[in-house]
Amino acid sequence: MSTARAALRVSTGLRVHRRRVMSTQSRASAYVPQGPIEGASVVITGANRGIGLEMAKQLIAKGNHVDAACRSASDELRALEASSEGRLTISTLDVSDPASIDAWASGLKARGVTRVDVCVNNAGVIGSNGYAWDLESTTQEEMIYVFKVNTCGPLLVTKALLREGLLGEGSLVGNVTSKVGSIDDNGSGGGYSYRASKTALNQVNKSLSIDLRDRGVHFALLHPGYVRTGMTDGKGLIDAPESAAGLIALLEGAHGDCETNWFDYKGDAIKW
């Protein structure tokens, strides 16, 4: 480990946590927030396709156990589960529904999960029916729906995992936001529902990082880039594997402290 990296971990008060034995997997290594994510217990929401699915693939390849949470599993996710040698478990979760979130979190504990090292709140929507980007197509109902998924979802998932005692000292929560939520960066207008939901998520992330500091839970904002996925109707500048690799590197501290800085998938800083 470099001297600078060691100093960073000491200054942020990060501690090494020995693995507890879980019924779902063997965990014998140590995990440090913003260190290598290997042999860890990971939760990814919205893991049935796109960035979430690709993050699941790459984290399984690094020797982690992944709980892939989604409303309905895609054929590709089921194939990944079948080939994962027990390192991936699919669970049902609708992040727009508080009852679904509570049932999902209690289900994790009932299944024998005792700790979540890394939670990636990836599930998100652009709109209720594709893009509602301009002023004319923006309605109150549209905004509320997008906020339920993009802003309330990550908050309530985190809250439910805390209630079940699954997040604790050293756990890391990565909230997938978007650069379009940056007020400084908004030079083109539009995107009322999506932009506002991601700006609000940034505030949620900040408050959680303050309120749960004493419990040792860490938080990071993640901008995946403009990714070609089903959510973007195949439009974008990069593909999911590149984005997922960049986000994992961010969580592993490749570009510095991702708790007090907001980076994109390349490690470039984003203004608020």
Number of helices: 7
Sheet with most strands = 7 strands, parallel
Count of beta strands: 11
CATH class: Alpha Beta
Succession of helices and strands: HEEEHEHEHEHEHEEEHE
Number of domains: 1
Description:
This protein has 272 residues and is an alpha/beta fold. The protein has one domain: Rossmann fold, CATH 3.40.50. It is built from seven helices and eleven strands. Strands 5-4-3-6-7-8-11 form a seven-stranded parallel beta sheet, with helices on both faces. A two-stranded antiparallel sheet has the order 1-2. Helix 2 (50-61) links the parallel strand 3 and strand 4 (65-70). Helix 2 packs across helix 7 (240-251), helix 4 runs parallel beside helix 5 (140-163) and helix 5 packs parallel to helix 6 (192-211). The longest helix has 24 residues, at 140-163.
Task: Looking at this protein, list some descriptive labels.
272 residues; alpha/beta; Rossmann fold; seven-stranded parallel beta sheet; two-stranded antiparallel ribbon; 7 helices; 36% helix
